[in-house]
Amino acid sequence: MPTERIGHRQLFLTLFIIRTFIVISFLPVLTIGGALQDAWISTLLAAVFNLPFTWLIVSLGQRFPRETVFEYAPRLLGPWLGRAVALPFLWLFLWVAAIELRLYSEVIITAFLVETPLIVVVLSMVIVAAAAAICGVEVIGRLVDMLFPLFVLAIVLALLLALPDADFANLMPVLSRGWVPVLKGTVIPLAMTAQFVVLLVLLPSLARPERFTPWALGAILLSYLALFLTVVVVIATLSAEDGARSFFPFFRMVRSVSIGDFLQRVDALTILPWGLGVFIALSVYLLCGARGVALLFKLNDYRPLIPPMAVIWAVLAVHNFDDIFEFRTVLQPRYTGPAIIGLTLVPLMLLWGGWLIQQRRSRGEKK
Amino acid sequence: MKAGRPAVLLMLILLLPALLAPGCWDQREPQDQAIILGLAIDFIEETALYEVFVETAIPSALAGAEGGSQGGGGPVSQVLGARGYTIFEALRDLEPLSPRELYWGDSELVIFSETLARQGLAPVLDFFERERHSRMTSRPLVARNDLQELLRVDLPLEDTAGLGFLSQIITQELSSASVPAVDLRRVVMMLSQPGIEVFLPQIRLAGGEGGAGGGGAGGSGGGAEAQPPAQVVRIESGAAFKGDRLAGWLGPEATRGWLWITGNINRATESVPCPVCDGFSSIEVIHYTHSLEAVIEAGKPKVIVRLNADSRIQDLNCKHPFAGSREEIISTLNSRMAEAIRRKMELALAEARALQSDIFGFGREFYRRHPRWWSAMEKDWPFIFQDLPVELQVQVNLRRIGLILDPVEVR
Lengths: 367, 411
Description:
heterodimer, A: mainly alpha, B: alpha/beta, 9-stranded mixed sheet
């Protein structure tokens, strides 16, 4: 099936976008864990911790340059355990997509379209994403190429416009509450690396997957750079205390910007990258999810699976959380930490274990 | 080509809904709304209700007034008031009074009554932070007069009172130095940060029946017979808070001192007695460098304020020439100017200490520079602030004296 090809740059930009929009939207380093003005240290730490995690995913994919995880998992671990290990990945795509979609819809409904039913916002996004996913990975790749400049421009502009109101003394004092809150702040951004599991499906679409490692690490570092800049500017404009109190600090910062008395209401600058990000992320997850199901159940084509899956997606995004409070608890480290370990690290470890055993066996046979 | 045609058709069909899309879901037509230009909030102690006054204007009427063609007609704005347990309820209760939907997304100004300020601003700020229409860029003022009276004031140069106040604040911030420049974002920030208290500008009706002072107020009152004396609105002096509650007022001089200490001044003029005769000279400061440093010396906290100002002479009302002892005169003027600034700073310190309100953010400076010391001393800060040594190092350099050297020699 993976005769469609995308370029290194396209996959790199995809990874960057799907990761950046979500960490910027609710700034987990600031709003969760209580690191306050030290959130930027959390960001740097998380970036360092994140590299091996990312490498673990990329280099597993590279062991099987022409296959997706759903193909080699049954071979490595046996038909049943293999499938059982692949299922969490499917669930992960579904779950992460539902959370991201809900987060986006919440901000739209809270701040812009108050009277619009949630399902309308959710569905409109799911429908476009499904259309992109049906068109296939090449189309998504080209879309990313096209949307990336807009995405970056909006974020850069938002940060620049906030600068005149920024007071960088808000970043002091440094580490006055010790390392514990700083470390807590790294949990959620680390957990979000689970998004990169899409690599295990998308790597075979590259012409030379074995050369992708620096690109993947670059995507994660670049995304942390964006997070770092955002956190610093948000703290400088809103103060750490007020930033941490907000649901969407980036959005709030942009709202409180006024340049002179003529340039105000630049809210669109947050909603634009956010919407683009959700769109790209959702179509990628849909594509990967549908491909996974098709491969696991040995179907010829994944495309017909996308519409029904999109419906499940939308329903989950709406019904998974009753209210914003429930939604917040999902984003707490004590909930997300174990969930991500269960859904990502454990299957990854099993797969690596399977690969190591296979290696040893084949070496033994040679002898 | 064969496959192309259905695709094009499909695209056209898909594009059709776009024709309907511009009529959007939550649409609000600007011409059907009454735009709130000034928002004033009061608190009624007996009933514990918030009272909200708004000055609304019809967009089309405003546009006409600006154009000047239909300007002379009736009033373009209306003041409405309503009460409620919360701000939002009070604002909702305004709607039955108004023939149009009220829109407060354009309100750039919010006036708090003294009673409300003494009661606490936090509930009001919560509304502003939570509501999606309101802006944290709104500028707060604390009123010493009745709010209705203030909003009904007729400013001949401006279309409405709200717009007039707003432009008055902005003018003050840019060209003179009489009020602290704040918006709601900064207010909330100061409330949530340790070691700094909120300091807001005061608004007061002077002239007519309004204020007590009003020295340079209604000068043109005697002219027309039928017209009531023109009212003047003063935006000067400041309201010092403790937490979210008003602690008391700082006078105009002390407010200037606050601006000097915190380095928030844009340009300021002081009158300094001439060293030679009994005349005065106005000296204006345009550029300056400023630093506020919190130091701990031998376990004792101390604040050092450094101000290095470049100044110029705006006018002299003495009659003797500069010549001869020019350098001497300049250096005397410099030190007198520095002394004048220092006196205002000291006045600000004294008045703030009397109100027990650390509006300078000295505490925050200690929190930032010496977080360990601060966490140990935070509880005692109110006492420490009372006799905290503040070193004021003011230096003034007279750089320019305008377009002429000596005053005219009257023969």
